[in-house]
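C-alpha cells for Serine hydrolase. Go.
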Amino acid sequence: MKRLLSLLLSLASLNAVAQQKPATADPRFNDLDTTMQRVIKNWNVAGFAVAVVEKNKVVYAKGFGYRDVEKKLPVTANTLFPIGSVTKSFTTSLIGQLEAEGKLNIDKPVNAFMPSLRFYNNDMNNSINLKDMMSHRTGLPRHDISWYLFNTNARDSILQRIQYQEPTKTVREAWQYNNFMFTAQGGIVEKLTGKTWEQNVEEKLFKPLGMNTSNTTIPELEESKEPSLGYELDASGKIKKMEYFHINGMAPAGAINSSANEMANYLIAWINGGKFNGKEVIPSQFAQQAITSQMVMGGGLPSKAKPDLHFASYGFGWMLASYKGHYRVEHGGNIDGFSASACFFPTDSIGIVVLSNQNGSAVPSIVRNILSDKLLTLKYTDWNSEMRSNRDKSEEQQKKMEKESKVPKGKVHPTTHPLSDFAGIYSNPGYGTLKIYTKNDSLFASGVKKGMWLKHNNYDIFDIYIHNLNSPIDTANKMQSSIQFQMNTAGDIESFSSVLEAGLKPLVFTKGIEAKAIDSKELQKYTGEYSLNEAAVKVYIKENKTLYVFLPGQPEYELVPLGKDRFSIKALIGYSLQFAVTSDRKVTELVFIQPNGNFAAKKK
C-alpha cells in the first residue's frame, strides 16, 4: 500500500487530539479512571484504549497502561493497535459499495462474477453467494490452521486452497465462522476494481472517514508515530512480549491497525446510517442489511441469572445481540498479542471501541460492558469480578480435565524408523507445505512464522507443540491433535495425518521428494550398464545434471537424489534405487526397491 505522507500523519494526530474529550467532561465518566485501573490490575493487562461516541461526536477517549511496557510508553487514544476480526465489517462495507455501484449482486452465486473461486463440490459452487460468505453460512468450518501455520503473503495461493477444504454442513444449514470467506471477499473486491484490497480500504473507507493513521500492514504499524507492542501472560502470570503476526495474505479477514479515536469515526458512520460528516461512505441500504439478522449463531436463550441478555445472530461482518434489552451490534478481534471490541447501539446512537495489547483478553468485553451500563443508565453489574470468577472457574475445570487426561498408559513403543526417515517436505492442497526436520534428538516442523515441536508419544505418533520459529519451545502451547506418520508398501514413510478440523476425518499430508544437490562429477560414478536377470539396465546422465535409468521395454525414468547413494524414481511413488558403493567410492551394484520386493543388478 502507498505510504502516507508524514505531513498527513501529523495533521491526523492533531485532528484526533482535538476530538479527544477529557475524562471529567461528562459526569457519566467521573469515576471511570478508578474502574479502569482496577481492570488493569485484575487482568494484568499491558494497556488498552477506549473511545465512546454519541450520535455524531466523540464524548470520551482515553488510553490506559502502556503500549510499550519495557520503555514505559503510555497508551493514548491515538495509539495504533491491530484490530483483528473487527476488520471484517470493513471488507463487507467494500462489498456494499460495489453493490451500490451495480458491479455485483450479493444474492447471486459468486461464480457468476469470479469463476476462479472454487469450492469443495458443485453444489457449493452453484449456490454460495456473497450473503452466505458475509454471514458465515457456507457450510465450511474454520480451517484456521491452514492460514495460521501455513501463512503466505500470496492471496491467490490462499484462495486456491478453498476448493480442497471440506465442509461439515450444507450451505445455509448452520452458522460456522470462517476467515477464508472474508479473504475471498477481498479477492472479489480486487477483481472487480483492479486495485488491491488494501488500496480499496484506504481510498474508500480510511480517507473519507478521516482515519488517516490507520493502515493494513505490520511494517506500516511499526513505522507509525504510536505503535503498540503485543503481549501475553506467561505460565506464571507475568506480562510477556509477543511477536507481531503478519497476515498479509488473509488481510481482508483481520489485518487493519487503528486507534480508538479513528475507530470512533468508523462507529459514527455506522450509527448514522453510513454517513460521516454528512457524506455517505457506507451505502445506507447495505448498512441496514449488515446490522440485520442474516443467520442465527446459536440458541441465544436468556439465562435465569441474566434474563436481559439474549439472542445471538450474525449480520454482514457484525454480531447481533440483545444487551439488557438494547439492540447491540458488535464484533471482537483477536490476533497474536492483541484483542479488540467495537460495538454500537443503533437505536440509542451510542458506540464503544476498546483496543487492547493483550493476547486473547477479556478486557475489551469487560470495559465495553462497563461503559454500556453507564451510557445506557442500566442496573450495575460488576463485570470485572464476574468475568474474573468465570475465568477462574474455567481454569480450574481445564486443570481438572488435564489431570484426568494424564492417565498412565501402557508400554511406550519406539518409532518404526530412525527420526531422520520422518524428515522431509509434506503437503496438503487445502493447507500448504510443512518442512519436518531433525534437531538434536527431536523432530521439528516449520511453516512460515510458526513452527511445531513434535514430541514422541507412541510408535509413529507425535504430540504437537506450537511455537514461533525464533522463540523457545513453550510446552503450554500443546495442540489437542497429534501427528501420525504412515508407511507405504515399501516400508518408507510416505505421509502423515492429523485431525486439524473438528468434525472431519484426519487430513493427510503427503511426503514429497526433497532432492539433494549432487555435483555432476559425483553423478558420473553411478553411470554404466548393470545386469538384472540377464536384462541390461542402463544408467546415464542427461543435460549434464540429471541421472536417468532405462530398463528394456520401459520408458526412461528420471532419478531424484535423496542422499547416501539413494535415489527415488520421480514418476513412480514408492519406488527407489540404492547403489552399493565400496569404501573407495566405486559402485558395484544397483538395488531396485519396490513395493513387491528388492531386486539387485550387478554393475558390468
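The domain at 419-511 is CATH 2.40.128 (Lipocalin).
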